[in-house]
Amino acid sequence: MEYRDVLIVGAGIAGLRTLYSLRKAGFDAQVLEASDEIGGVWNHNRYPGARCDVESFDYSYSFSKELEQEWVWSERYPTQPEILRYLNHVADRFDLRRDITINARVEAADYNEESATWTLTLHDGRKASSRYLVLCLGQLSAPKMPNYPGQDRFKGETIVSAMWPRREIDFTGKRVGIIGTGSSGMQMTPVIAQIAERVTVFQRTANFSVPAANAPLTEEEDRAVKADYEARREMTRNSPTGLGFQPGKKKTLEVSDEEREEAFEKAYHRLGFGFALTYPDILLDKDANRVASDFLRRKMGERVEDPEVREKLMPVTHGFGTRRPTVDSGYFEAFNRDNVDLADIREHPIEAFTETGIRTSQKHYPLDFVIFATGFDALTGALLKPRIAGRGGVTLKEKWAAGPITNMGLGTAGFPNLLIVGGPGSPTVLSNVMVSTELQVDWMTELLSHLRDAGVREIEVTREAEAAWNRHVAERVNETLYMTAQSFYNGGEVEGKPKVFMPYSGGVRHYRRLLEQCAADDYVGFALRSTPLATQP
Ligand code: NA7
Prior knowledge:
Elements: E1 4-9, H1 13-24, E2 29-32, H2 41-44, H3 65-70, H4 80-93, E3 100-101, E4 106-112, E5 117-122, E6 127-135, E7 157-160, E8 175-179, H5 183-193, E9 198-203, E10 209-211, H6 219-227, H7 229-237, H8 257-270, H9 286-302, H10 307-313, E11 326-328, H11 331-334, E12 340-344, E13 350-353, E14 357-360, E15 364-366, E16 369-372, E17 387-389, H12 396-399, E18 418-420, H13 433-454, E19 458-461, H14 463-478, H15 508-520, E20 526-529
Parallel strand pairs: 1-2, 1-6, 2-3, 4-17, 6-18, 7-16, 8-9, 8-16, 9-12, 10-11
Antiparallel strand pairs: 4-5, 5-6, 13-14, 14-15, 19-20
Helix pairs in contact: 1-13, 13-15
The structure holds ligand NA7.
Protein name: Trimethylamine monooxygenase
Keywords: FAD, Flavoprotein, Monooxygenase, NADP, Oxidoreductase
Organism: Maritimibacter harenae
């Protein structure tokens, strides 16, 4: 493969956007994608009911006015097939495919200190090299599977939600077990329940959810947004989560019970995730969080007829929002159907898989299919899969053994000319991914253009900057309730993973200001060298 200015790993939302921007800025860039299709998580998560819980108009690129005007979304919340179609349209519309190599899994990346370049090794031994390496590997993209005794013995079919097969799967007349009740499990349950003979949901942790209030988008809504799309974009960019919601002004307990009830009701029925910002302290103050959590438990409970099932579905291990809540379409109502059961595996754990199903400490469930909707090795999982070796051959895995350390999520000391989109230390996973991604990619494009103009050959995060940023990430999270729960934000989802809070919880708006400040201060926190460190006299 020829030498490029920039190699980008991953052709999901971030990789496509990076290619578009760098090419436009005059760089010779190439994307390497492991799969035989572009789309990242939207290529892999093809399970029934898969949908984004950010609204379509906001879960779309803002870099092209023409694209914004041309593309017509069909529903308020876009489905996986529609997002995948959109990403493919973008790839064609902007002629991106000529610089995307599919079936190219990067297994190793080695930094050459003399030449200040990266050499990548692919799964089939092919090599590729470049000055800069940009990792666009996703935050929730390395699937995690349980390891129950006898799993291999099961004679039915096992499917991982995040590696959903491309072929048609017919659940008609089948008994389906779904393990996991995050967004994936909650989205697929009501859809599969309409087809299968029986669905059993194996729940370890009950989760908070707000109804999506999804609906087809009308031509009128489409016209109204497109008449002034920029205003909507400005609103999302200037909101803390990139979703366009501004937190309410008064605190939760400053208002009367009646006023709060009314505000919660309104937000609950209309805003999806925006419910969390009804009041500014819901994720900051224990008492405020308790009140919001109680409201949600009551509303979720009203959707379930059977009192015993209702009780089991109520989250008790954590407060609302301290783990990723979901935005669901008919999840709780699904348990009112005769063919849907709940197996509480916290109370009665799974003991083993058998040839014909799953045995818990209470009973045996005969099954034809088991679906693992068991989540991801979040934020660092995909980044640590390839062997990435920086200065002195030290690997990223070694460097991050006690938890990831970055400057603003964008890079890490000892790994020059390596940039990360959506890295740990960035706000991406706590925000509308589109907004954070575009923000980071635009910033990186300016950075690389500046380096080119200034004749810089090597850029590297300084140790001081990354230490200061990690302290800042920790300070910000300590103002919140996020550490009161075990979650994929803080390594709680994988046994043995360092238990540190990884995303930046200071919000997208503030993060944007910090990025702008960094650029204005000549990229303070990054060492810029026109002669690589290794070759300096
Ligand atoms: P999540 O939100 O990480 O949910 C994973 C679910 O799987 C959660 O309910 C877990 O229970 C459960 N889980 C994980 N491992 C096991 C084992 N071993 N046994 C039983 N249950 C298990 O992943 P999703 O794919 O649903 O959603 C990920 C994100 O994608 C979502 O937030 C959106 O951003 C899109 P636990 O809570 O750990 O007890």
